[in-house]
Write a structure and sequence with these properties.
It is a single chain. By secondary structure, this protein is α/β, with parallel strands linked by helices. Helices cover 41% and strands 17% of the residues. The chain contains 12 helices and 11 strands. A 6-stranded mixed sheet has the order 7-6-4-8-9-10, sandwiched between helices. Strands 2-3 form a two-stranded antiparallel ribbon. The longest helix has 36 residues. The N terminus is likely disordered.
Length: 384
Amino acid sequence: MRKIKIFMLLPLLVACLSCKAETKKEMAFNAPSETIEPVKEHFIKVALLLDTSNSMDGLIDQAKAQLWEIVNELSYAKCKSQRPNLEIALYEYGNDNLSEREGYIRKILSFTEDLDEISKELFSLTTNGGSEYCGTVIQYSLENLDWGNNSDDLKMIFIAGNEPFTQGKVNYKDAASNAKEKNVVVNTIFCGDYNNGVSSNWKDGAQLTYGDYMSINHNQQTVHIDSPYDDVILQLNIKLNKTYVPYGSHGRKKTAMQKQQDDNAAGYSKANAVSRTVSKGSHLYKNSTWDLVDAEEEIEDFSYDKIKKEDLPDNLKDKSSTELKVYVSKQRKEREKIQKEISDLNEKRRLFIVEKKKDATNGLENAMINALKKQAEKKNYSWN
C-alpha cells in the first residue's frame, strides 16, 4: 500500500565539507624541500533523493521548517583552518506525474550552491501516488551528477521513504557497489518504525556503503524556539538585503526570489526566519550569478568592463566602471559589517537555544546532522 513520502534534508541542506588536505612536501634533487599548496577548496556534496509519492506532507513540512538550521549547523564546520563549501542536488522519485519510462524519477537540481534555488524547489514539491524505486534513483544520481575526483571531498546521498527498498529494476546492492566505487556514502531515512525499515532493507541499503540508517516520525511537528535576539536579527536581514547589487538578465528575478524565500521561511515561524537570516550571513550563502558583490569576489575572470549597462539597476546604469567598483566596495563593507553583527548575535542565540532545547528534538534535522557529523569526523572535520 502506497503511503506518504517526500522529504528534503535540506534542505536539507544545508553545509559542512570535506577535509583531510594535508600539507605535502615536494623533494627536489640537491635542493631543500618545497611546500606544495593544499587544495584551496573542499566540498561536501549532498544529493537529496525525495520520495514524492502519495502524502508525505508531514515530512515536507519538516524539511521546509528545518532546512536553515541544517545549513547553519554545516556552516560551523571546519577542515583544519578552512571552511568547506556546500553543494546540494535534488531528485524526486515515486510520483505518478513523472515519466514511467524514466522510472518515475526527475532530477530537480544538479549540484548547486544556490540555497535560494533549493528552497524554492522544495516549496514547489507536490505528492501523487506512484512506485518508489530506490535502487534506480540512487543509480541515476550516481550517473548523472558531477561528483568530482577529489577523494577528500565528503560525498553523500540521503534518501527518504517508507516503501520496501527492493522495488524497481535496479538492485539496490548494485547501486551501492557503484556508490562505493565513486566514494559516495548512502544514508537512508525510513519514515516509520525502526524495525520495519530494517525488515524492508533500508538499513542494509545504508550499511553496504558504510552509511547511516535512521528512522524518524515524519509527522512530528517542528519545534521552534524564540530567542531574545530574534527581532534584532530580523531587522539586520532587511539591511542585509539592501547590500545586494543585482546584475545580468536574472538579477531582478533573483532579487525577487530572495525575498520570496524570506517570506517562505517566515511562514513557519519567526524563529525559522531568523535561522534563514543566519544562513544568509554565513559563507555558504553565495549569489555570484546575480549579485555584483559576490561576483567580484568569487568569479575568477570577473571584469566590470563585461557588465552591460542595461543589465544594471537604474541607479547604476550611468556609472563608469570605476564608479561602479567604488559603489560595490561600499556595499561589501556594509554587508560584512551586518554579517558580523548577525554572527555575534547568533552566538548568543545558539547558547540560549541549547538551554531551551534540551528536551526537544526535530526528527529530520537531528537525523541528518548526526549522520553528517559522524561521517565528517572520518575526514578530520571539527565544529566550533
